[in-house]
Every structure is written in C-alpha cells, then in structure tokens.
Amino acid sequence: MAMKFPVCNKCVKSGSFCDSCKHLSRKGYSKEEIETYKKIHKSIKDMKHLGDVEIKRVLSNNNFAVIFCKKNDISKIIGKNGIVAKKIEKSISKKIIVAPYDSNIVDFSKEILRPINIIGVNVVYHGEKSKYIVRIPSSDKNIIKIDPDFFKHLADEIMKVDVDINFE
Question: Both 90 and 13 in a single domain?
C-alpha cells in the first residue's frame, strides 16, 4: 500500500496532471505541487508504515514546503527522530513543516508559525467580509521562520480565510 495523495498514482509517478485529474488545477493545485508529490513519493516509497498516511496538500515557496495531512498522521510523516522528515527535506531541497489539514484558524496559526508565541487571533468584520488578525509579539519578529506573505497564502488556500499578521 502506498501513501495517498490528492491526485492519482499516475499523476504522482509522472509529475504532471493526467486527463482525469486536470480539474484539480482549477481548484488551486499546481504542476509544482504535483512535482513535489512525485519527489515525496520517490523518497519514502520503501517505508511501508506510511501506507495509510494521506497527504492533503503540499504548498511551498523558495524556502519551505508545508505538508498538510490528518492530525494523527503528523507523527508518521515526521518519523522517529525526524528521519522521514529529513528524507523528504533532502528530496525536495526545502525545509518542511507538517501541519494538520482540518484545524481552526488559531490552531492553524500556531502550527505554521511555531515556535512563535501567538498573543491572540482577532476577527475584524467589514460588512459581509471578515479578516483574521494574528497578533504576535514584536520581540518575535526576528525569529519568525515563515514569510508573512506566504502565511497569508497558506491561510487563503487551506482555510479559505483572509489573514494578516500584526506585530505588537
């Protein structure tokens, strides 16, 4: 049994969309994301204990790739002493963050921005629209790993919400 991805095995092995999965490109999946699935699959295909793990999305920028999966699959993707995570990082040439796919905006922010302390998350309403403001101590501004624009992109793609980071 192989690890599950949001696209079929044909797409994972080829690194591009097949005819039956092309509709996913309209849902925000990119060719780069499919390429990342291919690299992850190649790096861990011999690890049988990952057969029941399902990766929901992998979004990346130049420095990081964020792997979204079920909460109880996180420890399997990281592996004992981080061995699986290190293999994945080596294969995709980026640091990875593994986060749960099915979380609320507060838990999502804590997972992605770790080890940053989050003061709180506020909701600002503008008529029919709402925006979440993630409040972070200004003392943590220099240790934040993820670019705030990339965090906004992640929140938009995964949580379907508008987010800003505010340093206080």
Answer: yes
67 and 111 co-located in one domain: no
Instruction: List Cβ neighbours of 34 (8 Å cut-off, separation of 6 or more).
Output: 7, 11, 12, 15, 16, 17
Within this chain, do residues 76 and 110 fall inside the same structural domain, yes or no? no
The dihedral region occupied by 28, where left means phi > 0, alpha psi between -120 and 50, and beta the remainder, is left
Return the structure tokens found at 5: 């991805």
User: Does 69 lie in the same domain as 134?
Assistant: no
The pTM is what? 0.88
**Residue 132 and residue 82 in one domain:** no
Q: Are residues 89 and 138 in the same domain?
A: no
Same domain, 14 and 94: yes
For the chain, 168 residues long, give each residue's pLDDT as a single digit of tens.
Answer: 568 888 888 888 888 888 888 888 778 888 888 899 889 988 888 887 788 889 999 999 989 999 999 989 999 999 899 999 999 999 999 999 999 987 789 999 999 998 899 999 999 998 888 999 999 999 998 888 899 999 999 999 999 999 999 999
Q: Which H helix or E strand runs over 42?
A: helix 31-44
Q: Which amino acid is at 126?
A: H
Assigned domain for 4 exists? no
Please tell me the number of Cα atoms within 13 Å of 77 on its side-chain side. 25
